[in-house]
Amino acid sequence: MAGDALYRAFGSAVSTRRKALDLTQADLAGKVNMSRASIANIESGRQNVLLHHAYALAAALDFAKVSELLPPMPQKPLGEELKMTLSNQTLSRKTLSQDAEAQVADLISSALQPRRGKS
Amino acid sequence: MADADTERARRFARSILQEFGVSTPPVPVDRIIKSRKIALQYAPLDEDLSGMAYIKEGVGIIGVNALHHPNRQRFSAAHELGHHVLHASEISRAVHVDKGIRVLFRNDVSALGTEPMEVEANAFASELLIPEDLLAAALEGEGVDLEDETAIEALARRFRVSPAAMRFRLTRW
Q1: Where is the IrrE N-terminal-like domain (chain B) (predicted)?
Q2: pLDDT value at B16 more than 80
Q3: What domains can you pick out in chain A, each with its CATH number?
Q4: Which contiguous run of DSSP H or E holds residue A86?
């Protein structure tokens, strides 16, 4: 994943999770000792994130692992086009965005990978 | 399209709970999924996606959006398990991706018979996470006032589900 896209994906993950937990940007800033402006910049993908900040954010957002906040590594393609069906299609008449399709494909690839060094 | 068979879905959920020997909430949905040799993955997904279910060459996969509230993730995981238990042939043919926003409002749709798979998976998840007998025990023979937010939230916390999921379950009591 290219640099900018990586920071945008990380930022949107922080923002989505923060809202799911009902925290404001100021709440989160307080928990990780950063300014609210920094949180806003990280969420919009405009600020590069230091490694210790990534850990602090993951902990403050109630994740057991930092990786749950990180976009998956690009996997080897599955070798075929994945056929996908979407729930509620009759209601929404929407299809998956390319990003969402890629997320789902990556998730399937990592699920199918032989377990390496997992506890 | 056939009508949703929610009674069958609830029956399957009850037999899994019995097999697993669950006697107190919260129901260990992760362990139940893993015991069935289904690969369970948490990953950041678009906000409006709650999860996915797929069977590839006999390998079962459940994906859950790691960014949602943990209690909502439990419902998504149970919902996807429902697809594996009830809809194995459909999810073998294509990856089934769930948009989560309407998850608790699909019953209106079921009246039209449009999304029976979703209605069934919701009934399964609801019964799995909030089993009838454990709910009865938690209510101790008393009723609960649906307007009483505090009581609903306390009940939801015991079962580690969202208050919305608890309210959904209670209205089908």
Answers
A1: 36-171
A2: yes
A3: 2-69 (1.10.260.40), 78-112 (no CATH)
A4: strand A84-86
Q: Which domains does chain B have, with CATH numbers?
A: 6-131 (1.10.10.2910)
Interface residue A73 vs chain B (CB under 8 A)? no
B54 touches chain A (CB under 8 A): yes
- Best B97, B105, B119 member to test A by mutation, with max A CBs in 10 Å, is B97
Q: Minimal Cα distance from A64: which residue of B? A: B66
Handedness of CA B24, B27, B33, B39 (dihedral sign): negative
What DSSP character marks residue B57?
A: T
B98 in contact with chain A, both atoms CB, cutoff 8 A = yes
- Flag the least confident range among A65-69, B31-35, B67-71: A65-69
Q: What is the ipTM of this complex?
A: 0.79
**CA count, 13 A, side-chain hemisphere, B74:** 23
Whole-model pTM: value is 0.83
Measured between CA atoms, the residue of chain A closest to residue B106 is A88
